[in-house]
Structures are given as C-alpha cells and as structure tokens.
C-alpha cells in the first residue's frame, strides 16, 4: 500500500535534501603557483576558490568546464568608457562566482584606478557568512 494512489502525495514521497559537498582541497601558494602540501576546508577553501576562479581565464583550459573562470582578460586593453568598464568588471566577476552552490550573492563592488592598475574590491555572500575580497587587475 506504500505506492497507493489513494494516499496523499506528501505521504508517497520523501523529499531528501542533498548534503553539502565538502570544500576540502589542497592549499595553493599563489605567488609560486605551487601546492603548499596541506589541506584547507570551509571559508579558507572558499576564499581560495574565489581568487583562483577570478585569475583563471574562462574557456582557455580544457581541464575546466565552461562555467569555471573569468573573462577579465577580454576587457584588458579595450578602448571603452570607465562606466562600461566598471559594469563589465562587475558582470564578469559575478558570473565567475555565482554558479558555485556555496555562493549566494556578489555585491558592493568598488573599483579604483591607480596608474595602469585597477583595484577591485567586493563582498561575497556565502551560506556560511560574508567574505571581503580584493583583486588587482
């Protein structure tokens, strides 16, 4: 009688919430480009993901799927207005991060130009808290 159509739908089905996947990964030294030899997890691993996703060019490396990486390199050297540049930087960084299930929102972008460099700071709202991030382009 477990599959009887006479029972209510709520009684016939059990909604199972998937367990969050572990974010345990190898720690990277971004200066040398090498693994440090130890493992990280939680917010530290998420910070590393954010930084790595932004510095990795999208569609360039076959090891990553089409969702991973950022298209900032396509903006560099373009002759576009400051307003358009700021909106495009906001868009490509948001697109690079928002597909990850741990990230809920990317907001509060501040973009400052000093000489030939752009300093981009923003907030990442995760299911575990807020991460403040800064990137130099």
Give the count of helical stretches: 3
Biggest sheet strand order reads 3-4-5
Largest sheet composition: 3 strands, antiparallel
Average pLDDT taken over every residue? 86
Secondary structure blueprint with pairings:
Layout: H1 9-12, E1 25-29, E2 34-40, H2 42-55, H3 82-98, E3 103-114, E4 117-126, E5 129-136
Antiparallel strand pairs: 1-2, 3-4, 4-5
Structure commentary:
The protein has helices at residues 9-12, 42-55, 82-98, and strands at 25-29, 34-40, 103-114, 117-126, 129-136. The chain is α+β, with helices and mostly antiparallel strands and 137 residues long. The strands form two sheets. Strands 3-4-5 form a three-stranded antiparallel beta sheet, covered by helices on one side. It has a two-stranded antiparallel ribbon with strand order 1-2. It starts with 8 loop residues before the first helix and ends with a strand. The mean pLDDT is 86.
Question: What are its keywords?
Answer:
137 residues; three-stranded antiparallel sheet; two-stranded antiparallel ribbon; alpha+beta; extended; 31% strand
Brief account:
The protein has a three-stranded antiparallel beta sheet, covered by helices on one side. It is extended.
């Amino acid at each position: 009688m477990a599959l009887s159509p006479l029972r209510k739908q709520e009684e016939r089905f059990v909604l199972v919430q998937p367990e969050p996947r572990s974010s345990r990964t190898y720690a990277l030294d971004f200066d040398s480009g090498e693994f440090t030899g130890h493992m990280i997890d939680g917010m530290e691993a998420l910070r590393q993901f954010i930084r790595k996703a932004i510095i990795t060019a999208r569609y360039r490396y076959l090891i990553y799927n089409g969702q991973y990486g950022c298209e900032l390199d396509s903006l560099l050297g373009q002759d576009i207005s400051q307003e358009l540049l700021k909106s495009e930087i906001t868009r490509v960084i948001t697109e690079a991060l928002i597909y990850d299930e741990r990230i809920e929102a990317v907001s509060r972008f501040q973009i400052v130009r000093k000489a030939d460099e752009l300093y981009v700071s923003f907030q990442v709202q995760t299911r575990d808290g807020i991460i403040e991030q800064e990137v130099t382009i």
